[in-house]
Specification:
The protein is mainly α. The protein has helices at 17-49, 58-61, 64-89, 93-123, 132-164, 170-203.
Length: 204
């Protein structure tokens, strides 16, 4: 697996020219993602300022223990994702696979709890149609959750490629690196959601 590496002074994901271009292109893509989530956050705060929660006040609906579990799962997955990248650069493939699988399990757990949270709100009568505040809430968190789900399938697809090809190549390594950037980005977005949506919502 190390036979593809030609420059020991560069990480594996930067060995392939096309891979390097893909990494640069993905940074540009993340800029567009920042714009998307900035718009969603702006919409959410405008709707919150309007007070249109249709009688379902966030402080009465949010369940902090559940949110803390979700936060722990996603932040822990970011840590294991970083460990997987480090193991990839050291070409420790057993550790690499272990950390990637743990990352997936934690991510799936996060999505599962978010689905449970949404189902709980719907069971209490809170839906997209009850008011503009809750519409913006569901769109913001739903968009983030959809991105996490996409990231899970993305990493699974890369792991399948890794196993089918019998090892790592610089081009595939660049794909794993890009997926890790994506995963860390989603964790940063969640920190803003946790602070701006849940904590501020509970305090008001």
């Amino acid at each position: 697996m190390s036979a593809h590496q030609t420059d020991v002074n560069k990480p594996l994901e930067y060995q392939d020219h096309q891979g390097r271009l893909n990494i640069i292109g993905f940074w540009v893509f993340l800029g567009a993602e920042v714009a998307l989530f900035s718009t969603l956050f702006a919409t959410y705060f405008v709707m919150k300022a309007g007070g249109s929660d249709a009688g379902f006040h966030p402080a009465d609906m949010f369940e902090l223990p559940l949110v803390l579990i979700m936060t722990f799962l996603l932040l822990a997955s970011s840590f294991t994702c970083g460990l997987a990248l480090h193991a990839m650069r050291d070409q420790k493939w057993g550790q690499f696979m272990t950390y990637q699988i743990i990352t997936l399990v934690l991510g799936i757990g996060f999505v599962g709890f978010e689905i449970y949270e949404f189902a709980h709100y719907v069971g209490e009568g809170v839906t997209l149609s009850v008011g503009s505040y809750w519409s913006s809430f569901f769109v913001l968190l739903g968009t983030h959750g959809a991105h996490v789900s996409l990231g899970i399938f993305w990493i699974i697809g890369l792991l399948i490629q890794f196993k089918m090809r019998g090892g790592m190549t610089p081009k595939l390594a660049s794909k794993f690196f890009v997926s890790s950037l994506y995963w860390h980005f989603l964790d940063v977005i969640w920190i803003f959601i946790y602070t701006g949506v849940y904590l501020f919502g509970l305090m008001q």
